[in-house]
Automatic annotation (TrEMBL):
This is ATP synthase subunit c. F(1)F(0) ATP synthase produces ATP from ADP in the presence of a proton or sodium gradient. F-type ATPases consist of two structural domains, F(1) containing the extramembraneous catalytic core and F(0) containing the membrane proton channel, linked together by a central stalk and a peripheral stalk. During catalysis, ATP synthesis in the catalytic domain of F(1) is coupled via a rotary mechanism of the central stalk subunits to proton translocation. It comes from Cuneatibacter caecimuris. The lineage of its organism: Bacteria, Bacillati, Bacillota, Clostridia, Lachnospirales. Residues 14-76 form the V-ATPase proteolipid subunit C-like domain. One of its GO terms (cellular component) is plasma membrane. InterPro entries: ATP_synth_csu_bac/chlpt, ATP_synth_F0_csu, ATP_synth_F0_csu_DDCD_BS, ATPase_proteolipid_c-like_dom, F/V-ATP_Csub_sf.
Length: 83
């Protein structure tokens, strides 16, 4: 028989798994950005430092979404709600 505490723990685990799906978007976006940056450097090697710095700044901003999802997952797994 499922108690209220068991249901809360199960929902926390499911929520943590769903929160980690947030890591898929930044991974895809960063891969696309790196590919476009590599193509841009191939077209204009003289602008390598400017392209690289802009790409890294964009990837750092995109990564925050994945980090927020990871933080939510860790909170759901390790912080005991309603106990």
């Amino acid at each position: 028989m499922i108690t209220g505490q068991d249901l809360i723990l199960a929902c926390s685990a499911i929520g943590a798994g769903l929160a980690l799906i947030a890591g898929v978007g930044p991974g895809i976006g960063q891969g696309i950005a790196a590919g476009h940056a590599a193509a841009a450097v191939g077209r204009n090697p003289g602008a390598k430092s400017e392209i690289t710095s802009t790409m890294l700044l964009g990837q750092a901003v995109a990564e925050t979404t994945g980090l927020y999802g990871l933080a939510v997952a860790i909170i759901l797994l390790f912080v005991k709600p309603l106990t």
